[in-house]
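Hello K.,

You asked for the raw outputs rather than the summary table, so here they are, unedited. I folded two proteins back to back in the same session to keep the settings identical. This is the first:
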Amino acid sequence: MRDIKPVLKLMLLEKKEVLLAALLGFLAAGASVGLLASSGFLISSAALQPPLYTLTASIVLVRFFGLLRAGSRYGERYFSHKATFTILSHIRTHYFDQVVARIPGLFRSKRSGDLLSRITGDVENLQFFFLRVVYPPVVMVLVFLATIFFASLYSFYAAVLLFTGFILTGGVIPAWFAWKTRQKAGRVRETRGALSTEVTEFMTGYRELKIHGQTKVKSEDVQSLAKAYTSLQQDEQHQLAGSESVNIFAGLMITWLIAFLAALEVQNGSLDGVWLAAMILVSLSVFESANPMASFPKNYESGRQSAERLSLSEGDATDQNGQQGQALSDAIDTIAFKDVSFSHEGSERFALSEVSALFKRGQRTAIVGASGSGKTTLMEVLLGIHMADRGDVLVNGQRLGDLDLDSCWSQFSFSLQDNHFFYGSIRENLEVPGTGAADQEMTDILERLSLSHLTLDDQLEEGAGNLSGGERQRLALARAWLRNGAVWLLDEPLSALDANTYDKVIKEVFDVSAKSMMILITHQLRGLEQMDQILVMDQGRIVERGSYHDLMAQKGWFYALHEVDKQMIG
C-alpha cells in the first residue's frame, strides 16, 4: 500500500473528474439495472391487461432508464478517460522528476534498459490503475447496495442471495485467485525489464559482439527471455480468463437460485407474480458490474509492482540533488575535504578513507595514482554525485550537502572520462553549456585545441561515433572552455592524444584557466611540473602531497609512478 500512495496522491489531483466518473458510472450501472427491472415488470404486467396509465408509466420508465444509461455511460467514459490521461501525465512527470533528481548517481545502480522499461512499460501499466483498480469496486459497491435495498422491498430471500453473490464475486473469488497466483506475481514485469535490458545491450554492443563472433549467443539469450516473457503473459491471461469464468458462473448460479426461490414465493403468495421477471433480470444485470472484479487482484498487484518499480528509493540514488539547498551566490574560492570517507552501497571497502585536501582558486592541483586508487570517486564526492559517509566537503566554508548543487555546478567547467555528445552539429554540441557564444569564438577555441579541421556545421553521429577518441576529448574541453568557470575539473581529459598534441593542448588549457581553480585527474605525468600541488592516491587515501620537485626529491610513491611512466614511454 505504501508504494501505491504516491499514485493515489497524483490521482487526487484530478478529484473532480474522478468523482464525476464514479457518479456517472454508478448512474449508468444503476440505470442498466433499472432498465431491465422495469422491462421485466412491463412485460409481466402487460400480460395481465392492467390499466392504460400503468403501461404508460412503465413505458416512460423504460425509456427514461434507457436514455439515462446511454447519457451516463457517455459521461462516465468521457470523464474517466480524461482523468486517466491526465493522471498518466502526472505519473510520467513525477517519475521523470525522480530520475532527473538522481542523475548521474542513479545510473550506477540501475541499468539503462531497465530504466527504459520502467518509464515505458510500468508507466503505461499505471494508466489503467484508476479504470481497473479504483473505479470498478466503487461502482460495484454502490450498485449492489442500491439493488439489494430494492430487492429487499419485495423479496427477503432475493436480497440475501444478492448480498451473498456480492460477497462471492466481489471478494471471495477474486481473493482466492489472488492467493493462488501470488507466487507468480511480479515475474512478468521483472522479465519485461530483463528483456528490455538485454535488447538494449544487444543493440548498443552489436559491433563488439559481431567482431568477437558472439551475436548468435547473445541473440539466443534475447530470444530465450522473449519466449519466457511470452509464456508468462499467456499464463497470466489464462489465470485471468479462469477467474472471469468462475465469477460469471457464480453470478449465474445466484440468478438461478433467485429464480427458484422467487418462483416459490410467487407460488405461496408472498411475492406478486409480476415481479418475478424483474427479480431475475435485476440479478442478471447487477452481476455485470461484478465482472471487472475478476481481474481486480491481477490489476491491483500489477499496478502495485509497477508503482514499486517507479518509486525510486533513496538507496537507488547516491546524490541528493532532489533536496533543494541554499544557492551558492559567490564565486567558488575554496573547496576543502575534511576527513572524508566514502564507501559504495553494498561494499565494505572504503573507496575514500579519511581524505583531507584543500583546493584554492588560482591554484592548479593534479591528482594521480594507479587505477582504482580513488581518484574518480574523489571527484564524484566533490561534485555531490556521492555524499560522504563521514567527514565534510566544504565549498567556501559551507557544507556541500547544505547547498543547491545546481548553483555549484554552474561554476564548474567539466571534462570527464565519459562525455556525452548529442546527434547534431558541432555548433549544437558546443552550445550545451548555454553561454551564448558567437560562432567566431567557438571557431577560435576549436583552432586553439588543434581541431581546426572541424567546422561548426559538421554533423556528429550519436555519441560522436564519427570522431576519434582524441577529437571527442578535445571537443569536451572546448565546451569546458566556453564556460570557463571558477573551477576546472578535468578527469583524464587528454589521455587519447599523442605527446606533441597533448603538450600543445594542455598549454592552451593552462593559459585560459590561469585564474581559476584547476583539478586535474590524470594517469599521464607529463607537464605536472607546472602544477602547484600534486596529490598521490592509493587505496582511497592520499599517501603523498606536494610540488613536483618536492615529490621527486622524496623518491616515494610519485617517484615510483614517474619511473614506471618513463619506462613505458621509453
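The second followed immediately with the same parameters:
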Amino acid sequence: MTTNPNKRMIDIFDTTLRDGEQAPGASLQPEQKIELAHQLASLGIDVIEPGFPISSPGEFAAVQAISRQLQQVEICGFARAVKGDIDAAVKATADAARRRIHLFISSSDIHIEHQLRRPRSEVVATAREMVSYARQFTDIVEFTAMDAARTKMDDLIEMVEVAIEAGASIINLPDTVGYALPHEYGEMFRRVREGARGGDQVRYSAHCHNDLGLAVANSLAAIANGASQIEVTINGIGERTGNCALEELIMALETRGDVIGAATNIKLNQLYETSRQISRAMHFPIAYNKPVVGRNAFQHESGIHQDGLLKNRNTYEIMDPEALGIPRSMIILGKHSGRHALKDRVRKYGFEPDEQQMEQLYEVFKETADQQKVVSDDQLLQMVSQTMNIPAQDYELVELQVTAGSMTDRMAAVRIRTSAGEHSYSAVGSGPVDATIQAIAQCISDDITFVDMEMHALSGGEGASAEAVITVERAGREFRGTATHHDIVMAAGLAYVAACNAAGLKAESAESEEVSVH
C-alpha cells in the first residue's frame, strides 16, 4: 500500500465497470461486474463507478447489487444531467453505505453547438438545475464538465461556478478526447481553482483519455495542480484508446513519490491479479509491452542487462515485480543471453551441470537461439536432458488427434511420454480444446489443478498461428505454460503440458515462471 502520512493522499476513482466497459468489444454480465467489483474493493479502490443505471435493466441490477454488497467502498451512480438518469442512479445506489451521484453535461463549444444544439445559456441553466436536484438525495455530488480540456476558460469557469453554487462538492475536469498536453491540462486545474468563485472550497478530479498516449502524464499534471482524485480504469481500458491506466498511475506515484509528493490506498500486491481478471472477463489481451503488467515489463534478454540484474536487481529494474504480485520471470533466454543467465536458470530448476556439460549446453542453446530468437524453458529442459543425460521433464505430448463437428461429439486422443513410458488417453469435451485438456489431465498428477486458459490469434492467412496461455496450480502456487502453434488445439495441449512440467519441477527452489513452447 502506498499510504504515507508525509504525502498528500489521492483518492482513486475506478470506472472500469462503466467507462471501461464502453470499450468496443468489451461487455460484462451483471454477475461478472459484481465479481470484479469485489476484486476492485480488495485492491483498495476508494470509489467504484459500477455502471450507467439508466442504460439497461442489467446495468441497474448490477449497480444495485454492488451497492448492497460492498459497504466498505463508496459507490458512484452515473447520470446525464437529466432527471430520469439521476432518479435511476439514486435508486440503484440507495442501499450503499456511502454513495455519490456523478452527473455530466458538455461544456465545450464544439459539443454544445454540434451535439446538444442548444444555446450555452440553456446548458448552463440545466447544469445548475440538475446539480441542485441531485443534491437533494446525497451530500456528495460530482459534476463533470464534459470536454473541459477544449472549453474556453471563461466558459469553463462559469459552468464550474454554477455547479458549485448548486451544491456540487467534487468538480471533474476531463480530457474527454485525449487532446490536452500535460502543461495545458495542469494549468486548466490551476486557473479554475483560483478563478472560480468557491473554487477553493471543493475537491477536483481528473478523468483523462489516452488518444495521444498522455492520459497518465495528464493525470500527474492534474495532481501537481491540486486534483485530489484521479479517475482510472484497470489496464487503461475504455472508449477508443482508453483511459488513464490505474497500474501505471499507481506505480508512477509509488516509484517517483519523492518528487510527486502523493500517495494512495492501493494495495500493490493486488495489481497484477486484478489486471488479469479484467483482461479475462473483458476478453482484452494485455499488450506484451504494456507498462507494469505486460509480459515484457520485467523480462530481459540482453546479456548485459541479465548480468546486471543477477548481481543487483536495481541495475535495470525500477520496480519490484514480486511486490506487485507478478511471478518472477525477469530473464528471457535468447540469442543475446550469456552464460551467466543460462547457468542461473538451470540452477533454479535444480540442476548443477559441470563445466564441460555447461559448455555443451551453451553451444546447443546458442544454435537454437540463433534460429528462433527466444528459447523456451521447455526447450531448455530438453537440452538439459540431452547434455546431462538425465530426465528433466515429467510429461511430453507426443501425439494429438481430435474429432470435432456440429453433428458429432468433440473427442480427443493423446499420447503422453513420461518416465514410465508412453501412454494413450482419450476424452470427450464441450469443444476440441476442452476434450484435449481433459485427455491430458488423466495423465497429470492429481495435485496439479487447471486454473484458466487464454487464446490469442497471432496472425492470419496461410501462415496463421495461435498462442495459448494456460495456468495451473500446485501447492498454492501458480505456474503458466505458453505455446505457439499453427494448430490452435495443439497450442493448447502444448501449453497445458508446459505448465504441468513447470509445476512438477523437482527442485523446491524453482520459481513460478512462464514456460514458452514454440
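The chain has three domains: 8-282, 303-388, 396-517.

Happy to rerun anything if the numbers look odd on your end.

Regards,
P.
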